[in-house]
Every structure is written in structure tokens, then in C-alpha cells.
Amino acid sequence: MDGASSQKTSPIVALAGNPNAGKTTLFNALTGLRHKVANYPGVTVERRSGRWPLGDAPAELVDLPGLYSLDATSMDEEIARDVLRGSPDSPVRPDAIVAVVDATNLERNLYLITQIIEHETPVVIALTMMDLFEEHGHVIDIEMLSKGLFVPVVPVDARKGTGISELANAVSGVFGKAQQVPAGLTAELSGEGSEVFARYRYISGLVQSAVKHNDVDAHRFSDRVDSVLTHKFWGLLVLLGILLLVFQAIFSWATLPMDLLESGFGALGDGARSVLPAGIFADLIIDGVIAGVGGILVFLPQIILLFVFISILEDTGYMSRAAFLLDRLMSRIGLHGKAFLPLISSFACAIPGIMATRTIEDRRDRLATIMIAPFMSCSARLPVYVLMIAAFFGGQTVFGFVSLGAVIMLGMYLLGIVVAIIVAFILKQTVLKAPTPPFMMELPPYRMPSFRTVLSNVLVRAGLFVRRAGTVILAISIILWALAYFPRSDAAAQPGSETAASTQLENSFAGRLGHAIEPVIEPLGYDWKIGVALIASFAAREVLVSTLSILYNVGGDADETEGLASALREAKRADGSPVWTTLTAVSLMVFFVLAMQCMSTVAIVRRETNSWRWPLFMVAYMTVLAYLGAFLTYQGGRLLGFS
Amino acid sequence: MPAGSSGTVTSVDDSSRVGRRLSELGVVPGVRVSVIKHAPFGDPVEVRLLRYNLALRKEEAAVVEIDPASTNGRS
After folding, report:
1. pLDDT averaged over every residue in chain A
2. Which residue of chain A has the CA closest to B29?
3. Domain containing B15: what range?
């Protein structure tokens, strides 16, 4: 179609190129920060697009996933390939393609170009990294490069904003023209032998005539940095330091905004209580909707901080170094080095971690990584660990100076890691059995992170989290609220009474369920109250704390941990023996390490795997593991004489 | 190949998936490859070719044949 002259629809321009060629930076510079992010139909590949003011008619610019060639090996690459080839089933029909080419890495970048120009859609090359190219003393004849590929070539510097209008003019100029293939390339390809070698022969000839490289390959900046950052010893030490910094940020800097959000939702609930007429509707809105959704959104500061760190580490080029450092360890359990980061992110929250597995090309590798991500102790487990430790291990030390609580906390983190390793190993030997996929990965030069790229990444990811998790959590919150709210008992009719809430909860469906599962969970050391709390916390782990608060009549506020802790210590069974022992506490923590108690994660896994099979499998096997783990802890502990 | 050594690619078995991918990344006959370093646990290996750095496992590098005596390959 002749997009430029059409008044009805704006033309579509696809942005393609190798990973690390500066594609995202250019996309952000051309479209500003307003992006539309959706998934391509039927798959979980992200479709990012924005409006690019192109002369008088704005175009829709679609950022395709980065790729090295049109021989796709991953879901992302398949989409990009279909668009660039103009396949009949392509989800996007571009009127022109802007191909980003990194001038400092010309030959490999041009390989993709030789493939793209064989299809009809007209191509314009945006030549990036020219500042670095010239700094290195290289010289390029842009005219000759353009003639050799039958494609306009425009040098751009997205960070400084130069070349943008020239690029727009060039793109407007190619609309409606069919892309031609240079005769020299056709001739090379008609010969015998490898097609790939033929393309590189053509590129090599072109580059030798169009570019004069400064042959002093200077001791490059990135290699000097890497002499420390990928050093056998220092590299690992720096990686450890970076992880410490990230966790420090997530667990301490995020506290203030989290507290603010929490009190904000509390105030919102109080406000609603004073405005709405008392009754079932007010209870639904306040205790179901506001408390439920608020309980998840409280984690947003941590998730945003995590996305900021991931984006910065990606944008600087450090991420591939981390994969390089740790691939050997990861490949021993059958995973790719790239699985490391998603797993580390899952220590804050499995949701960004699972979303970050998109960079793993091999489907089976990606699934195995997703399946074990929830074993990493996320921040929603912390309130549970904190409560148990405050109640049963507070103030105790080992070796006189190390707090016992800290040791137990570390133990829970390690338990998750060890189980994850074993499960990954088993999965890769059985249901996800496949030959080890290749590692091959570019180590791009280090770059200053771009503020705009980081900001746009964080906005998009955080928005997805709020939308995807928010909807599911809302539904589950209402269901759980109803389970605890109905049927109404007489006690609830006297709201002044101290024990009204707990009596109501005991007689509700949730309470009856707790009693019903008591025989099943008794061997784990749990009574019906813990049963109710377990059922409630299948939506989100930290709900355990607020549910126990209601059951023990200590109020639902988070700052009443000490009150709840002493209530737990003093709780007695009918025969006068304590309900909670240190062994119960450990058994419960083990259960929380291993169980899949997070509806948001289930929803995200559903989205990322595009089926219910994997999330249901995940819930099932993790629940079995959690039961076995808690059973072995409690019964084993008793055999060993602990109580 | 130890760190610091280099040579020119003489052949790549591009009938395998790994070989095909490597050749698409520029590991083709006539290109000069130099080994920069090995990762902490001995694998993967970082190499430099065509003015960029590539990491790959030793096992994957096995499909590539290199003539260490030839130092005049394209870089």
C-alpha cells in the first residue's frame, strides 16, 4: 500500500537490527516516552510501538525484537522474521523498515541487512555509534555503502538527537518503493557452497571498499574494564557486591515508600468506611477490594527498584558479563547463564524474574527457569519469616554474637536455592529433556545507561505488573473475602465485641475449610487456625500474618507483630499444650519456602507460557514438595527430640 | 586455545545448528579470531572477531577449525 499518500491510516515503520546495536535508544528518541505495549496475538512476545512524527503524517513505529539473522531460534526472533519477510501470517505489515546498524561492528550487523533487502519492504539504514567509530580513527564512505546495498544510509546519534530529521526524510522517500537487491549479492548467492559464507564474502568486499579501518585496534576501554569485571576472582567478587547493593536497596530503601503505600491504603479504607453506609457493600469494598489489592500494590516499590536495577545492568552491558561468569555453574544444572539474573530477581519477586526469562532463547530452558523461580525466597515471604523468628527465636544467638534469627533466615533462603537446583536438574532430565542449547552471546562494549531507556523500561514493566497481577488479585481477593465473610454468624452482628471477628472467621466457609483440612495438616504440626491462614495465603503469602492476627484477635495492623508473636507463644490446645512450638514455626517456614502461594505468579506464568498446563503443574508439584518438606521437618524434628 | 592466542578460521561445519549460528555471527573462513579469556570456571571462552567480542562454550567452538599459524585473516 502507498502509506505516505494514504490519508486514512498512518504508515507503519518497523525498527529492526542486531541486539546491542542501539535500537532501543533510537526507538525512544524517535517516539518519546509514550509507548503502546501489547503482546502479539497468541504468543507472549512483546509488541512495543509508538508514534513517530514523520513530516506531516505521523507513522506508527514498531520496535521488533533484536535478531542476528532471519533464521529464527526463539519466539521473539520468529515474530521479527515474519514481519521482516512480509510473511502472509505476519502480525505487522510495515510500509518501510528502519534497520539499525552499529558502525563499530559493521560486518556482522550487515549480515542481517543482506537478508532483509531480499524481501519487498523498502529498507533504510540508521547508522549508529558513529561517535565511537570516529573516535577509533575509522573512516566510512556512506555513499558507497548505500550504493552497495541499494538502501539509503543515515548516520544518527539518538542521544544527541542528530540525524533524526534526515532519517525521517529518508523513510518518507522510500514509501511505496519495492526494495531491490544488488546484483553483486545475487551473484555471490547463486554460487555453490554455504549461503552464509557467500553473504559474508559480499559484505567483506563492500566493507573493504567503503571503510578505512584504523588498524591499531587500541587496547579498548571495555577490555580494560573486563580485566576486572570478568576476572576469575575479582569478577565474581564484584558480582557479589552488585547483588548485595541490589538487595540492600530492595530491602531497606523500599521500606519508606512501602510504609507510605500501606498507610495510604489504610487511610483509603478508613475514608471509605466513613463515607459508605455500613453493610455488606462497604465490607466488600474495604476488606475485600482495598485490603486485597493494596496488599499486592505495597510490593510495587520493590518491584520498581528491581526493574530499575535490571534495566541499568542490561543497558550498560553488564548483564551478559554476569551470564558469562556463571554459565559454567548454571549449565551444570542444565540451565543457560542467562537464567541467572531472572532467578536472582526472583528473590525480590518472582513476577519480574519470570518476565525477565524472555531473554532465554530456548523454550525448554526458559520453562525450567520459570518453574524454579518461585523457590527463590521473595519479599512476600519475609513477613512470615519475620513473624516466626520474632515469636520463637527472638534475641537468641549462636556463637554468642550471630543472631539465631539471621541464621534461620539464611537457612530458608538456602533451602529454596538447593531445592530449585534439584528440581531444575530433574526437570531437565525428564519433561524438559533436550540437548543443551548453545550459549553463544555477544559481550557488547560497556555504555553509560540511558536515563530514557531505563525509565521507559521501568514504566512498561511496572504497568504490566499492576495490570496483570491487579486483575487476578482483585478477583481472588473478593473470593477469599467472601469465604471468610459468609455465612454470617451471630457474633458478627455485635461489632463491639472483642472476639467478634475471630468468631465470625471460625464459623465462615474459610474456618470450616480450616477445620476440614486439620487432619491432613496435623502431621505438619498445624491446627485449624494455621489451616485457615494457609488457605487464605494461597492468594499471597503475606496474608498469613493478617489472617493470624484476626484469628488471634490482635488486630490486622502490620506493626503489631510483637502482639501477634506473644499471642502465638501463649496459644494453648484443649489439653493445655502449646499450639506453637519452635518446630511448628520451622515447619511452617519450610512450607512457605516450597509452596506456590501466589496467585499473581500463577497468572504471570499462565501469560508467559500461554497455557494453563504449566501454572497448574507448578502449583501441584510445589504443594506436594511443601507438604513433604514440612512433614519431614516436623516429624523428623520430633524423632530427633526437638519440640 | 589459550588466552592471548589467535588464528584464522579455515572451516566451520555449518550443517549443525551451532555451526550455522556461529557462521551467521561472522565465524566464517578467512576471519581472524583471538582468544581473550576464559570464564572463572574455565568455560565459556571470550573471543574477538570482526571488531566485536563473542562468548561461547568450548564445546560449541569445536565445530570451528582454526589455523593458528595464519595471522593475516580479516579482522
Report:
1. 87
2. A197
3. 6-67
